[in-house]
Write a structure and sequence with these properties.
Layout lengths: L9 E2 L5 E7 L2 H12 L7 E9 L4 H14 L5 E4 L5 E5 L6 E4 L6 H11 L9 E7 L7 E9 L5 H16 L13 H9 L3 H11 L11 E2 L8 E8 L1 H13 L4 H16 L6 E9 L18 E9 L5 H15 L7 H7 L12 E5 L7 H9 L3 E2 L3 E2 L8 E7 L5 E8 L5 H17 L9 H5 L9 E2 L6 H14 L12
Helix pairs in contact: 1-14, 2-4, 8-9, 8-12, 10-14
InterPro entries: CAT-like_dom_sf (IPR023213), Condensation_dom (IPR001242)
Organism: Streptomyces triticiradicis
GO biological process, one term: lipid biosynthetic process
Length: about 500
């Protein structure tokens, strides 16, 4: 796929003029092609919802979002495939805000319909907002649904944009000043100047040869189901607090405890005996890079990297925890590298053994500044807790974790129902919760076999073989080869 050496400005759809064009990252290539393959399914679309308690001026609300759109370049971004795949940045985009009266729509149906609607990313606007008035005459309240696409935004970015929106709303609907930097252009330029050599050397040295166990379930029959499903289990606030304190006493983050449990479930699902390699994906913020103010930069920076670890039932649990912790620290220097690149570097891009087929995601987003919450309260507005749905990804199953405002921990198994039934997903997330509750009761000598013994007698969850035609399988393999040519020699310095 040949490309020009410099991106060029030009007239785009709808008569809008693109100020700048940026190369797609390898990760965006994979995600966008998967979205095209699964149009109408809501793949890679995430939603946040919350309750706005207090008066809400629709005109001011819309003006505030428009002000944020005018300020933040990524909200005026689109994707074009001709003459070469790229992100085009428009000088203008209209925000979509729709309000429904109380009783006019069913909330659950609205949320699902809006997710399945997806986005036509050929035009600018990877985010939209829907308002539904609550039938609460005693006090005004409105449910807010924010829907966005992962090709151009991650959850961290959306929380940054929400802070900007609240400031604009409090200021009467307009943010002072023009475009803010850094933005997606600065991130693209930073990526362009990275030398992939050290990353390639790290991953080829770190990833062992052979086929790791990548599914946390035993082979099973066709589910006869379709679509995306979600199964949940919950650790109460005291249970979650015991887990966090125990992890701290082991000198590991709680994410290492989650990953250790998932690694053991992968081992158990594969029916292995003796030492064996397992592999799964872990999410990273992508913001641990040397770019000024990167924590306030809205862009699709969140990434998935392969975690490969050896599980030996005879080894102590503490050893696995430390290996996972240290591996995560080593990977932190390469948060900007995609899983597709790593598969290419390790010779797995065109039919080799995959490094991952599941994902462990720990919710990590910035909190609104305390003074901002106080200013909203001063205007009679209170924001009740946010609920993040998580996106339906291309993985057969993903473990999503989110801590509630009461300190509890919700575990969600987001799954492809054609691969894993609702009953099996519930069994899997239930096993995960049981092992997490068991960890604080372990001692320094506890082995992995002893931890897994908690599940003895329980049937492992089942997962069906992948469906799809030969053409679809070939298309999946092409996801990696396209990314090999995703570099562009330069980005205009004036962008």
């Amino acid at each position: 796929m040949a490309r020009p050496s410099r991106p060029r400005a030009g007239r785009q759809r709808g008569g809008r003029r693109a100020e700048c064009a940026l190369p797609l990252t390898w990760w965006q290539h994979d995600l966008l092609l998967d979205s095209l393959q699964h149009q109408g399914t809501g793949r890679h679309v995430e939603q946040l919802s919350w309750r706005w308690c207090g008066p809400l001026d629709t005109e001011r609300f819309t003006a505030a979002w428009q002000s944020v759109t005018d300020r933040e370049t990524v909200l005026r971004a689109a994707v074009d495939w001709e003459p070469w795949p790229r992100v085009v940045l428009h000088d203008r985009a209209a925000v979509e805000v729709v309000r429904h009266r109380a009783g006019g729509v069913d909330w659950d149906e609205l949320v699902e319909r809006d997710r399945l609607r997806g986005f036509d990313l050929r035009g600018p606007g990877p985010l939209r907002v829907t308002l539904v008035d609550d039938p609460a005459p005693a006090a005004p309240a409105t449910r807010v649904l924010l829907t966005f696409h992962h090709a151009l935004l991650d959850a961290w970015s959306v929380f940054v944009l929400l802070d900007e929106f609240y400031r604009a709303y409090l200021a009467g609907g307009a943010l002072p000043g023009g475009e803010r930097r850094p933005d997606i252009r600065d991130w693209a330029r930073w990526l362009q100047h990275q030398d992939p050599g050290p990353a390639r050397e790290f991953w080829t040295r770190t990833i062992p040869e052979g086929a790791p166990a990548v599914l946390p379930a035993a082979p099973g029959p066709d589910t006869l189901e379709s679509g995306c499903g979600r199964a949940e289990a919950r650790l109460s606030a005291p249970e979650a607090e015991r887990l966090y304190r125990w992890a701290a006493a082991q000198a590991v983050p709680d994410s290492s405890a989650l990953q250790a449990v998932w690694a053991m479930l992968l081992y158990r699902g594969a029916g292995l005996s003796g030492p064996a390699q397992v592999g799964f994906g872990v999410t990273v913020s992508g913001r641990g890079i040397a770019l000024e103010a990167v924590e306030r930069l809205p862009a699709p920076m969140r990434n998935c990297l392969p975690m490969s670890v050896r599980v030996d039932p005879a080894h102590r649990l503490g050893r696995l925890l430390r290996v996972l912790r240290d591996r995560a620290l080593d990977m932190a220097a390469y948060e900007w590298v995609s899983a597709g690149q790593i598969h290419e570097w390790t010779g797995r891009a065109t039919g080799g053994d995959p490094l991952l087929a599941s994902l462990v995601a720990v919710a990590s987003v910035p909190r609104p500044p305390r003074e901002l919450r106080a200013d909203l309260a001063g205007h009679g507005v209170r924001i009740e807790p946010l609920y993040a749905s998580g996106a339906h990804t291309a993985f057969p199953v993903a473990l999503l974790t989110q801590r509630g405002p009461d300190g509890s921990l919700t575990l969600t198994a987001a799954h492809d129902r054609s691969r894993m039934s609702a009953a099996d997903a519930a069994r899997l997330v239930g096993h995960c919760a049981r092992l997490l509750r068991e960890l604080p009761a372990t001692g320094a000598e506890t082995t992995l076999a002893q931890v897994l013994a908690v599940l003895e007698g329980d049937e492992p969850p089942r997962i069906a073989r992948r469906r799809g035609s030969a053409a679809q399988r070939a298309a999946r393999l092409r996801l990696h080869s396209i990314g090999e040519r995703s570099d562009v020699e330069s980005i205009p310095s004036g962008s």
